[in-house]
Amino acid sequence: MSVLVNKDSKVIVQGFTGSEGTFHAQQMIEYGTNVVGGVTPGKGGSSHLERPVFNTVAEAVQKTGANVSIIFVPPAFAADAIMEAADAGIKVIVAITEGIPTKDMIFAKEYIKNFDVTLIGPNCPGVITPGEAKVGIMPGFVFEPGRIGIVSKSGTLTYEAADQIVKAGLGISTAIGIGGDPIIGTPTKDAVELLMNDPETDAIVMIGEIGGNYEAVASEYIKSTGNKKPVVGFIAGQTAPKGRRMGHAGAIIGGADDTAAAKMKIMRESGIYVVESPANIGETMLKALKGEPISA
Protein backbone atom coordinates (compact mmCIF):
# COMPACT_ATOMS: atom_id res chain seq x y z
CA MET A 1 0.00 0.00 0.00
CA SER A 2 1.09 3.57 -0.60
CA VAL A 3 -0.37 7.01 -0.11
CA LEU A 4 -2.02 8.96 -2.96
CA VAL A 5 0.07 7.63 -5.89
CA ASN A 6 1.60 4.28 -6.84
CA LYS A 7 2.52 2.09 -9.82
CA ASP A 8 -1.19 1.65 -10.65
CA SER A 9 -1.89 5.39 -10.85
CA LYS A 10 -2.93 6.58 -14.31
CA VAL A 11 -1.64 10.13 -14.63
CA ILE A 12 -2.58 12.91 -17.02
CA VAL A 13 -0.79 16.23 -17.37
CA GLN A 14 -2.84 19.42 -17.65
CA GLY A 15 -0.80 21.94 -19.61
CA PHE A 16 0.88 18.97 -21.28
CA THR A 17 2.38 20.67 -24.33
CA GLY A 18 3.74 23.78 -22.60
CA SER A 19 7.44 24.03 -21.75
CA GLU A 20 7.02 23.18 -18.06
CA GLY A 21 4.51 20.43 -18.70
CA THR A 22 6.69 18.90 -21.39
CA PHE A 23 9.89 18.93 -19.35
CA HIS A 24 8.42 17.47 -16.19
CA ALA A 25 6.15 14.99 -17.97
CA GLN A 26 9.25 13.62 -19.69
CA GLN A 27 11.00 13.32 -16.33
CA MET A 28 7.99 11.53 -14.84
CA ILE A 29 7.82 9.11 -17.78
CA GLU A 30 11.54 8.36 -17.49
CA TYR A 31 11.07 7.69 -13.76
CA GLY A 32 8.49 5.07 -14.62
CA THR A 33 5.30 6.94 -13.78
CA ASN A 34 2.31 5.73 -15.78
CA VAL A 35 1.59 8.95 -17.70
CA VAL A 36 -1.34 8.03 -19.97
CA GLY A 37 -1.83 11.36 -21.74
CA GLY A 38 -2.30 15.06 -21.34
CA VAL A 39 -4.66 17.97 -21.80
CA THR A 40 -4.09 21.11 -23.86
CA PRO A 41 -7.27 22.81 -25.15
CA GLY A 42 -7.19 23.14 -28.92
CA LYS A 43 -4.59 20.42 -29.41
CA GLY A 44 -6.82 17.41 -28.87
CA GLY A 45 -6.26 14.55 -31.27
CA SER A 46 -2.53 15.14 -31.52
CA SER A 47 0.30 13.26 -29.86
CA HIS A 48 3.00 14.57 -27.52
CA LEU A 49 5.84 12.60 -25.90
CA GLU A 50 4.26 9.57 -27.57
CA ARG A 51 1.13 10.13 -25.48
CA PRO A 52 -2.34 11.29 -26.65
CA VAL A 53 -3.40 14.90 -26.17
CA PHE A 54 -7.01 15.74 -25.29
CA ASN A 55 -9.00 18.98 -25.32
CA THR A 56 -10.65 18.33 -21.95
CA VAL A 57 -9.96 16.38 -18.78
CA ALA A 58 -13.34 14.64 -19.13
CA GLU A 59 -12.29 13.27 -22.52
CA ALA A 60 -8.91 12.21 -21.13
CA VAL A 61 -10.56 10.33 -18.25
CA GLN A 62 -13.06 8.68 -20.59
CA LYS A 63 -10.39 7.50 -23.04
CA THR A 64 -7.56 6.57 -20.63
CA GLY A 65 -9.17 5.84 -17.26
CA ALA A 66 -6.93 8.48 -15.67
CA ASN A 67 -7.36 8.95 -11.91
CA VAL A 68 -4.48 11.36 -11.13
CA SER A 69 -3.76 14.75 -12.68
CA ILE A 70 -0.79 17.06 -12.40
CA ILE A 71 -1.33 20.72 -13.31
CA PHE A 72 1.18 22.94 -15.14
CA VAL A 73 -1.38 25.57 -16.14
CA PRO A 74 -0.60 29.34 -15.90
CA PRO A 75 -1.82 31.00 -12.66
CA ALA A 76 -4.78 32.83 -14.23
CA PHE A 77 -6.32 29.55 -15.43
CA ALA A 78 -5.03 27.05 -12.86
CA ALA A 79 -8.00 27.21 -10.46
CA ASP A 80 -10.31 26.42 -13.39
CA ALA A 81 -8.03 23.49 -14.25
CA ILE A 82 -8.36 22.17 -10.69
CA MET A 83 -12.15 22.38 -10.81
CA GLU A 84 -12.26 20.79 -14.28
CA ALA A 85 -10.21 17.84 -13.02
CA ALA A 86 -12.50 17.34 -10.03
CA ASP A 87 -15.56 17.57 -12.29
CA ALA A 88 -14.13 14.88 -14.55
CA GLY A 89 -13.72 12.39 -11.72
CA ILE A 90 -9.98 12.67 -11.05
CA LYS A 91 -9.23 11.38 -7.53
CA VAL A 92 -5.83 13.00 -6.86
CA ILE A 93 -4.99 16.46 -8.24
CA VAL A 94 -1.44 17.78 -7.89
CA ALA A 95 -1.28 21.51 -8.61
CA ILE A 96 2.30 22.61 -9.22
CA THR A 97 1.43 26.15 -10.38
CA GLU A 98 2.78 29.02 -8.30
CA GLY A 99 1.04 32.37 -8.02
CA ILE A 100 -2.61 31.35 -8.30
CA PRO A 101 -4.68 34.31 -6.98
CA THR A 102 -5.87 33.62 -3.44
CA LYS A 103 -9.48 34.51 -4.29
CA ASP A 104 -9.41 31.92 -7.08
CA MET A 105 -8.14 29.25 -4.70
CA ILE A 106 -10.80 30.08 -2.10
CA PHE A 107 -13.45 29.46 -4.75
CA ALA A 108 -11.78 26.32 -6.13
CA LYS A 109 -11.25 24.75 -2.70
CA GLU A 110 -14.89 25.30 -1.80
CA TYR A 111 -16.00 23.91 -5.17
CA ILE A 112 -14.08 20.63 -4.93
CA LYS A 113 -15.55 19.86 -1.50
CA ASN A 114 -18.45 18.36 -3.46
CA PHE A 115 -16.19 15.71 -5.00
CA ASP A 116 -14.28 12.65 -3.80
CA VAL A 117 -10.90 14.19 -4.57
CA THR A 118 -7.63 15.02 -2.83
CA LEU A 119 -5.88 18.23 -3.92
CA ILE A 120 -2.16 18.57 -3.26
CA GLY A 121 -0.81 22.10 -3.65
CA PRO A 122 -0.84 24.53 -5.30
CA ASN A 123 2.73 25.89 -5.33
CA CYS A 124 4.14 22.51 -4.39
CA PRO A 125 6.72 19.96 -5.59
CA GLY A 126 4.15 17.17 -5.79
CA VAL A 127 3.99 13.60 -4.48
CA ILE A 128 6.38 10.67 -4.91
CA THR A 129 6.15 7.02 -3.93
CA PRO A 130 9.74 5.97 -4.66
CA GLY A 131 10.17 3.24 -7.23
CA GLU A 132 6.50 3.46 -8.21
CA ALA A 133 5.34 6.92 -9.25
CA LYS A 134 6.62 10.48 -9.28
CA VAL A 135 3.83 13.02 -9.77
CA GLY A 136 5.72 16.26 -9.39
CA ILE A 137 8.94 18.13 -10.04
CA MET A 138 11.20 16.59 -7.41
CA PRO A 139 14.51 14.95 -8.40
CA GLY A 140 13.57 11.28 -8.31
CA PHE A 141 17.11 10.00 -7.72
CA VAL A 142 17.13 11.46 -4.19
CA PHE A 143 14.30 9.19 -3.06
CA GLU A 144 14.78 5.52 -2.20
CA PRO A 145 11.94 3.15 -1.27
CA GLY A 146 11.38 2.53 2.43
CA ARG A 147 9.00 3.05 5.32
CA ILE A 148 9.42 6.71 6.35
CA GLY A 149 6.76 9.20 5.22
CA ILE A 150 7.52 12.87 4.56
CA VAL A 151 5.14 15.84 4.74
CA SER A 152 6.61 19.22 3.87
CA LYS A 153 5.57 22.77 3.04
CA SER A 154 8.92 23.35 1.35
CA GLY A 155 10.00 21.71 -1.88
CA THR A 156 13.72 22.02 -1.27
CA LEU A 157 13.42 20.74 2.29
CA THR A 158 11.42 17.75 1.02
CA TYR A 159 14.48 16.74 -0.97
CA GLU A 160 16.84 17.48 1.92
CA ALA A 161 14.75 15.39 4.30
CA ALA A 162 14.68 12.50 1.82
CA ASP A 163 18.44 12.71 1.39
CA GLN A 164 18.92 12.65 5.17
CA ILE A 165 16.64 9.65 5.56
CA VAL A 166 18.39 7.72 2.80
CA LYS A 167 21.86 8.54 4.18
CA ALA A 168 20.69 7.16 7.54
CA GLY A 169 20.11 3.83 5.81
CA LEU A 170 16.35 4.23 5.67
CA GLY A 171 13.95 4.93 2.80
CA ILE A 172 10.74 6.74 1.90
CA SER A 173 7.22 5.30 1.69
CA THR A 174 5.61 8.42 0.22
CA ALA A 175 6.73 12.06 0.29
CA ILE A 176 4.03 14.74 0.06
CA GLY A 177 4.96 18.34 -0.74
CA ILE A 178 1.81 20.12 0.38
CA GLY A 179 2.76 23.62 -0.85
CA GLY A 180 3.37 26.90 0.90
CA ASP A 181 0.44 29.07 -0.21
CA PRO A 182 -2.13 30.40 2.27
CA ILE A 183 -4.88 28.29 0.65
CA ILE A 184 -3.87 24.71 -0.16
CA GLY A 185 -5.86 21.57 -0.74
CA THR A 186 -4.28 19.30 1.88
CA PRO A 187 -3.00 20.95 5.07
CA THR A 188 -0.25 19.37 7.17
CA LYS A 189 -2.60 17.50 9.51
CA ASP A 190 -4.48 15.80 6.66
CA ALA A 191 -1.24 14.70 4.99
CA VAL A 192 0.18 13.41 8.28
CA GLU A 193 -3.06 11.52 8.90
CA LEU A 194 -2.75 9.74 5.53
CA LEU A 195 0.71 8.51 6.50
CA MET A 196 -0.30 7.75 10.08
CA ASN A 197 -2.97 5.40 8.71
CA ASP A 198 -0.69 3.81 6.11
CA PRO A 199 0.42 0.33 7.27
CA GLU A 200 3.61 0.57 5.22
CA THR A 201 4.78 3.79 6.91
CA ASP A 202 6.61 3.34 10.23
CA ALA A 203 7.48 6.96 11.03
CA ILE A 204 6.99 10.46 9.65
CA VAL A 205 9.08 13.55 8.96
CA MET A 206 6.99 16.74 9.27
CA ILE A 207 8.53 19.94 7.89
CA GLY A 208 6.77 23.23 8.40
CA GLU A 209 7.59 26.90 8.31
CA ILE A 210 6.59 30.18 9.93
CA GLY A 211 3.08 31.50 9.36
CA GLY A 212 -0.34 29.94 9.89
CA ASN A 213 -1.39 27.18 12.27
CA TYR A 214 -1.02 24.04 10.15
CA GLU A 215 1.78 22.60 12.26
CA ALA A 216 -0.02 23.27 15.53
CA VAL A 217 -3.16 21.50 14.29
CA ALA A 218 -1.07 18.58 13.03
CA SER A 219 0.79 18.37 16.35
CA GLU A 220 -2.48 18.19 18.27
CA TYR A 221 -3.62 15.39 15.97
CA ILE A 222 -0.36 13.46 16.44
CA LYS A 223 -0.70 13.76 20.21
CA SER A 224 -4.33 12.59 19.99
CA THR A 225 -3.19 9.33 18.33
CA GLY A 226 -1.06 8.57 21.36
CA ASN A 227 1.99 9.17 19.17
CA LYS A 228 1.37 5.78 17.57
CA LYS A 229 4.15 6.49 15.07
CA PRO A 230 7.26 8.56 15.83
CA VAL A 231 7.40 11.97 14.14
CA VAL A 232 10.51 14.07 13.53
CA GLY A 233 9.72 17.74 13.00
CA PHE A 234 11.50 20.82 11.68
CA ILE A 235 10.32 24.41 11.27
CA ALA A 236 11.97 26.64 8.66
CA GLY A 237 12.32 30.38 9.18
CA GLN A 238 13.74 30.45 12.70
CA THR A 239 15.47 33.79 12.08
CA ALA A 240 12.65 35.40 10.10
CA PRO A 241 11.64 38.92 11.20
CA LYS A 242 8.02 39.52 12.11
CA GLY A 243 5.77 40.83 9.33
CA ARG A 244 8.07 39.97 6.43
CA ARG A 245 7.07 37.26 3.98
CA MET A 246 9.76 34.65 3.54
CA GLY A 247 9.65 32.63 0.31
CA HIS A 248 6.20 31.09 0.29
CA ALA A 249 3.10 33.28 0.24
CA GLY A 250 1.95 31.69 3.49
CA ALA A 251 5.26 32.14 5.30
CA ILE A 252 4.75 35.32 7.26
CA ILE A 253 4.66 35.77 11.03
CA GLY A 254 1.30 37.32 11.86
CA GLY A 255 1.25 36.72 15.61
CA ALA A 256 3.10 35.18 18.52
CA ASP A 257 1.90 31.66 17.66
CA ASP A 258 3.20 31.93 14.07
CA THR A 259 6.87 32.04 15.00
CA ALA A 260 9.21 29.10 14.55
CA ALA A 261 9.92 29.03 18.30
CA ALA A 262 6.23 28.86 19.18
CA LYS A 263 5.58 26.07 16.69
CA MET A 264 8.60 24.09 17.86
CA LYS A 265 7.38 24.40 21.47
CA ILE A 266 3.94 23.05 20.54
CA MET A 267 5.53 20.22 18.59
CA ARG A 268 7.80 19.22 21.51
CA GLU A 269 4.85 19.30 23.90
CA SER A 270 3.01 16.97 21.51
CA GLY A 271 5.75 14.34 21.68
CA ILE A 272 7.41 15.15 18.37
CA TYR A 273 11.19 14.85 17.98
CA VAL A 274 12.05 18.44 17.01
CA VAL A 275 15.34 19.21 15.26
CA GLU A 276 16.99 22.63 15.06
CA SER A 277 18.50 21.92 11.64
CA PRO A 278 17.43 19.72 8.72
CA ALA A 279 20.93 18.22 8.86
CA ASN A 280 19.82 16.37 12.01
CA ILE A 281 16.74 14.71 10.53
CA GLY A 282 18.39 11.38 9.67
CA GLU A 283 20.16 10.75 12.97
CA THR A 284 17.11 11.89 14.93
CA MET A 285 14.84 9.54 12.97
CA LEU A 286 17.11 6.64 13.91
CA LYS A 287 16.73 7.63 17.58
CA ALA A 288 12.97 7.99 17.18
CA LEU A 289 12.64 4.52 15.66
CA LYS A 290 14.55 3.08 18.63
CA GLY A 291 12.24 4.90 21.03
CA GLU A 292 15.04 6.89 22.62
CA PRO A 293 14.02 9.90 24.74
CA ILE A 294 13.19 13.03 22.81
CA SER A 295 15.81 15.03 24.71
CA ALA A 296 18.53 12.55 23.71
Automatic annotation (TrEMBL):
Enzyme Commission code: 6.2.1.5
SUPFAM superfamilies recorded: NAD(P)-binding Rossmann-fold domains (SSF51735), Succinyl-CoA synthetase domains (SSF52210)
Reactions that this protein is recorded to catalyse: GTP + succinate + CoA = succinyl-CoA + GDP + phosphate; succinate + ATP + CoA = succinyl-CoA + ADP + phosphate
One Pfam family linked to the record: CoA_binding
Keywords per UniProt: Ligase, Nucleotide-binding, Tricarboxylic acid cycle
Binding site for substrate: 159
Residues forming the catalytic site: 248 (tele-phosphohistidine intermediate)
Binding site for CoA: 17-20, 43, 96-98
UniProt similarity note: Belongs to the succinate/malate CoA ligase alpha subunit family.
Purpose: Succinyl-CoA synthetase functions in the citric acid cycle (TCA), coupling the hydrolysis of succinyl-CoA to the synthesis of either ATP or GTP and thus represents the only step of substrate-level phosphorylation in the TCA. The alpha subunit of the enzyme binds the substrates coenzyme A and phosphate, while succinate binding and nucleotide specificity is provided by the beta subunit.
Protein name in UniProt: Succinate--CoA ligase [ADP-forming] subunit alpha
Species: Adhaeribacter aerolatus
Lineage: Bacteria, Pseudomonadati, Bacteroidota, Cytophagia, Cytophagales
